[in-house]
Amino acid sequence: MIKEVALLQLKNNPNYQKNLDKILYYIEHLPKDTIIVAPEVCLTDYDYENLEKACEFSEYALDELLKVIDNQIFVLTLLRKIDNKFINQAVVLHKNKIIHTQAKHKLFKLGDEHKFLAAGDGSDIVKFKIDNLEYGLLICFELRYKELWQKLEGADIIFVPSQWGEPRKRHLEILGSALAVMNQCYVLIANSAKETMASSSAIYAPMGGKVIDDASECIRGFIDTKQIKFMRRYLKLY
């Protein structure tokens, strides 16, 4: 099975609606069965001064996205208020439904996330199925934790929506490639293109290949599930 992938390597606009409009544009113009991954908190950024407003917009945007995501798979993270706590939650959409949600478990203390957001307990970091493929998801900083890699062993595709800083750019590339090779899967990293961020959005393949382009706002490529099956038969790690 061959599936098309699009990674949105976006800069955040202070105007939330403009961020949503750009995402809706790509959803409309990409093929209708594309896997689309957007960067972490791509709609509102980490707007800590306006968390209530950001969370309200997230709910509005989620409703709008659910109307247009049919055969595509769309992945992003949102600032949300749940049980009276502010969280950064990943959401996977398919066929006008929410397929999977996952609260960020490992907050990035250098960015003061822990001062404003509640951490998830990690219980929702699990594999999930869409059609005949198994997926997993890690949010940005979580890519550094080997115990979280282990929770996703056997996944065919792992999503990583990120706001990964430019000073640690090489780390993002090494970890993404290593996870794909170790888990014999595809790793799809969509990172922010803000001035302080690393870009480095990439499609990493189980054989070690990659598609990466720091200059593009939309990075497109393909995944071939035969590569996953070949590597898992060849090395028989699982």
Explain the overall architecture.
The protein has 238 residues and is an alpha/beta fold. The protein has one domain: Nitrilase/N-carbamoyl-D-aminoacid amidohydrolase, CATH 3.60.110.10. It is 29% helix and 29% strand. It contains six helices and twelve strands. It has helices at residues 16-29, 51-68, 113-116, 146-151, 169-183, 225-235; strands at 2-8, 35-37, 73-82, 85-94, 97-103, 128-130, 133-137, 157-162, 186-191, 202-204, 210-212, 218-224. The strands form two sheets. It has a six-stranded mixed beta sheet with strand order 5-4-3-2-1-12. Strands 6-7-8-9-10-11 form a six-stranded mixed beta sheet, with helices on one face. A hairpin with a 2-residue loop joins β4 and β5.
Question: What share of residues are in beta strands?
Answer: 25-35%
Uncertain spans: none
- Cα Rg: 16 Å
H and E string: EHEHEEEHEEHEHEEEEH
Task: Order the strands across the largest sheet as they lie in space.
Answer: 5-4-3-2-1-12
The mean pLDDT is 96
CATH superfamily: Carbon-nitrogen hydrolase
Number of H- or I-type helical stretches: 6
| Overall number of strands | 12
How far from one another are the termini?
A: 21 Å
Biggest sheet details: 6 strands, mixed
The helical percent reads: 25-40%
Can you name the CATH architecture? 4-Layer Sandwich
Query: How many individual domains?
Result: 1
Structural class: alpha/beta
What does the overall shape look like? globular
- According to CATH, what is the topology? Nitrilase/N-carbamoyl-D-aminoacid amidohydrolase
CATH class designation: Alpha Beta
